[in-house]
Amino acid sequence: MSGISMCLEQTPEVDYLKYSFLNSYDICNRVDLNEYYTYYNYLYFQDTLTPVDFIEIRWNDLLGDLAGMCTKTYSGTIIELNPIYLNKYPEEFPSIIVHEMIHLITLDHGDRFLEEVERISKLGLEINVYCKHNLSVEG
Ligand SMILES: [Zn+2]
C-alpha cells in the first residue's frame, strides 16, 4: 500500500489495476480493496470521496443475493462486496465497487445517483443502477 499516492500521479504506474481483477484466482486474495478504492476515488471522483483511511471496505461472503452493499452507521461507513458473486463475474468488479462508492454521496438511486452514473459513463465506466443489488448468485 505504501507509495500508492505517489504512483497515482503517474497513471501508467497503476495501469495493472485496470485489469488485474480479471484472473482466475480467488478474488479475495488478488484484489486489494483499499487499493482499488483509492484508485477509483482518484480516477472517477477526483479524490473527493472519504479518504480510504476513514472508511472500511471488506469482503463479505454472507451477502446472499447482493453483489455489494454500502452501510452508514454512527461509527462510520462500510462498503462490502460479495466475493462469491465477483468470483463468478469478475468483469463486473469495477462497476459494482464504483456503484457502492456513489452511495457515499447518496444512499438511494435517485436523481443525484443517476447524475453520477451519467458523469462516470462519460469517463468510460458503465454502471448498472438497478440490478446489481438484486442479482442472484447461483451455486
Ligand atoms: Zn445501489
Q: How does CATH name the architecture?
A: 2-Layer Sandwich
The distinct bound ligands, ions and cofactors come out as: zinc ion
Distance between the termini: 34 Å
Helix content: 25-40%
CATH class, please? Alpha Beta
The strand order across the widest sheet is 1-3-2
The stretches of 5 or more residues where confidence is low (pLDDT under 50) are: 1-10, 134-139
Rg from Cα: 14 Å
Task: Please state the overall shape, judged from the principal axes of the Cα atoms.
Answer: globular
Query: What's the tally of helices?
Result: 6
Largest sheet: 3 strands, mixed
Number of domains: 1
Mean pLDDT figure: 83
CATH topology: Zincin-like
Strand content: 5-15%
The total strand number stands at 3
User: Can you write the helix and strand succession as a string?
Assistant: HHHEEEHHH
Structural class: alpha+beta
How does this model look, in words?
The protein starts with a helix and ends in a 17-residue tail after the last helix. It has helices at about 5, 25-30, 35-45, 85-90, 95-100, 110-120, and strands at about 55-60, 70-75, 75-80. It is built from six helices and three strands. It has a three-stranded mixed sheet, covered by helices on one side. With about 140 residues, it is of the alpha+beta class. A hairpin with a 2-residue loop joins strand 2 (about 70-75) and strand 3 (about 75-80). It binds zinc ion. The site of zinc ion has 4 residues, from loops. This is DUF45 domain-containing protein. It holds the Pfam family SprT-like.
